[in-house]
Amino acid sequence: MTQTHSKSREKAEIAFADAQSQFFARNSAVEELDSIVLAREEKTRRLREARLAKELNDREAATASLLAKRARTA
């Protein structure tokens, strides 16, 4: 069953399909950018945690070294 539509309706449906495909393409691009942002934030969080753990370890090692020096000189 083929339906025949007027020329103006066919043009309107073509225009709507174009607009709809642009909408979905834009949503796809936004989703891709969102995933990139989330990945960057996760990587930043992991790097920050690693840096803070290293700094804590370095402080503890320096404190232990100073305590050991004091114990030898006292």
Q: Percent range for helical residues?
A: over 70%
The average pLDDT is: 90
What's the total helix number? 1
Main beta sheet: none
**Hey, roughly how much beta strand do the residues contain?**
under 5%
Low-confidence stretches: none
- What distance separates the N and C termini? 102 Å
Characterize this entry briefly:
With 74 residues, the chain is mainly alpha-helical. Helices cover 91% and strands 0% of the residues.
Describe it for me?
The protein has 74 residues and is mainly α. The protein is built from 1 helix and no strands.
Key phrases:
74 residues
Helix and strand topology:
Elements lengths: L6 H67 L1
